[in-house]
Specification:
The protein is an all-alpha fold. The chain has three domains: 10-89, no CATH class; 95-333, no CATH class; 347-468, no CATH class. It has helices at 13-22, 28-38, 55-66, 71-83, 101-111, 130-133, 158-178, 183-243, 254-314, 347-355, 359-368, 375-384, 433-442, 451-468, and strands at residues 393-396, 417-421, 423-427. Strands 1-2-3 form a three-stranded antiparallel sheet. Strand 2 and strand 3 (423-427) form a beta hairpin. The chain is elongated and about 105 Å long.
Length: 471
């Protein structure tokens, strides 16, 4: 039933009021009416005056609500959607700290904590590995160039972090609604995030260890170069004295002045080289650490969002949703993939239809099914296609390889299969099911279902949930 049809049930009145308000202009009347519209649900957006948002946001909200079903779920979806557009309202101006990017990184490290399900206690600040790096990393300014800008926010600010948290929350919750994730899928996605959180922490610690080694090696090389220059100067002075017939005062000697100048020039060159290399190391650290910290913050935010919003919705307990207090941990439920899957005659065609999707759409489809193929698995698929010669490196990497350079295929995002050896080229992810089946069989291990069986199994369950859902 269309919730906006005149014959819709009375309990959908809140949605009718909300969508009607989308068309209203800014002003006290819009703000008061919106308050009334959200009064019947468990959530209210942080700024509930629709007049504070852009027209494009009004239109997007109307499209979102036009497909809404349950009014409680619609209330949650609308509230989180508007929170994800807080930057439009001016509220974040109060939180801005544009000239202090280090505060943004500190805020990430202090306001996010990994959920207990991750198996790691304590605050993220104690997990990132900074303490283990030691004094050497005092040379690294981790505050700069740490947070990537979104289109909606171009400044590194505390406000932008608040906005990102809202965007990440809305993203994962809306997916759970759109794809009709049941408790098993919400639990499985939460487990994936928890596992990924531990991987990110380990990557941060490894990055810190490697950076410390690089910096200490640089310092050792710098000291060794200064000692070499000192020895060279001493040897040349000794040789000069010997040439002049033995020990004597060389004060005022033109040759000594030459030696001193050469030493000073060499010392300055060593200092300049040290500075340039240190700058390169720190910039590389900042890029990598910034991405990992953002990944960790996003990971923790979305795990919290699943527990606070998606889990109650999946269990039919939407009315119990609240922003207050600590969200209860999501239990680890069976995934539904523990037992072997029995294929039917149509499954070969279904699998082929999925795998022929372009890479980005395929990844979206797998995410809807809460399936995350490992990089090793996808690299196996790339290698199975035999795009390159046997002694070339063939692996999966859709993002920039190394430093970004638009002139080269591998140094910018593109087709995900890389062949490196004689130059570097990108190729599409193979769509032939035989490559996927081969790698799935090789990497199944003790799992109840191979990855390709898991695709078919989850697809069948997904179809059933959509068929059972209220129209």
């Amino acid at each position: 039933m269309n919730p906006f049809h005149p014959g819709s049930r009375p309990r959908l009145a809140v949605l009718v009021a909300l969508v009607a308000l989308v068309a209203l202009s800014a002003g006290p009347t819009a703000g008061q009416a919106t308050t009334d519209a959200f009064a019947g649900g468990p959530l209210r957006p942080k700024v509930d005056d629709l007049g504070a948002y852009r027209l494009e946001t009004h239109e997007a909200l109307a499209r979102l609500m036009s497909t809404a079903g349950d009014p409680c779920v619609a209330n949650v979806a609308a509230s989180l959607f508007l929170d994800a557009h807080l930057a439009e309202t001016g509220l974040l101006e109060q939180l801005r700290s544009v000239d202090r990017p280090a505060e943004a990184i500190a805020r990430i490290a202090t306001i996010f904590a990994l959920p207990d399900a991750a198996g790691i206690g304590g605050n993220i600040a104690s997990m990132l590995g900074h303490a283990s790096i030691g004094a050497a990393l005092n040379l690294v300014s981790v505050g700069q160039n740490t947070l990537k800008s979104y289109d909606v926010l171009v400044e590194h600010s505390i406000g932008s972090l608040e906005q990102r948290q809202a965007i990440w929350t809305q993203e994962i919750v809306q997916k759970s609604i759109d794809y009709k994730w049941d408790p098993k899928l919400v639990s499985d996605r939460s487990r994936q995030l928890a596992d990924r959180g531990q991987v990110i922490v380990a990557e941060m610690q490894d990055l810190g260890d490697r950076t410390e080694v690089e910096i200490l090696k640089l310092e050792q090389d710098f000291r060794a170069e200064l000692e070499r220059l000192e020895r060279r100067k001493g040897d040349r002075i000794d040789a000069l004295r010997e040439a002049l017939g033995g020990p004597r005062d060389l004060a005022g000697s033109r040759q000594l002045e030459v030696f001193e100048k050469e030493y000073k020039d060499g010392e300055q060159t060593a200092i300049s080289n040290r500075y340039a290399k240190l700058t390169a190391i720190t910039e590389s650290y900042e890029r990598s650490a910034g991405q990992l910290i953002e990944d960790l913050a996003r990971n923790a935010t979305q795990q919290e969002a699943l527990a606070r919003y998606a889990w109650p919705i999946a269990r039919g307990e939407c009315a119990q949703i609240t922003r207050e207090g600590k969200a209860a941990a999501i239990p680890r439920l069976p995934t539904g993939l523990e037992e072997p899957y029995e294929r039917d005659a149509a499954d070969a065609g279904r699998l082929a239809d999925v795998l022929k999707l372009p890479h980005d759409k395929l990844m979206v489809t797998l995410e809807a099914l809460v399936l995350q193929p490992s990089t090793d698995f996808l690299s196996c698929v790339c290698h199975a296609a035999a795009y390159g010669r046997s002694h070339t490196a063939q692996f999966y990497h859709p993002d920039t390889l190394g430093e970004y350079d638009k002139r080269y295929a591998c140094n910018k995002p593109g087709d995900p299969c890389i062949v490196s050896g004689y130059g570097c080229m990108r190729y599409p992810l193979p769509s032939d099911p035989k490559y996927w089946e081969r790698c799935a069989a090789q990497m199944q291990g003790e799992a109840g279902q191979s990855f390709t069986d898991a695709i078919l199994s989850r697809m069948k369950s997904q179809v059933a949930r959509f068929q059972e859902a209220p129209k």
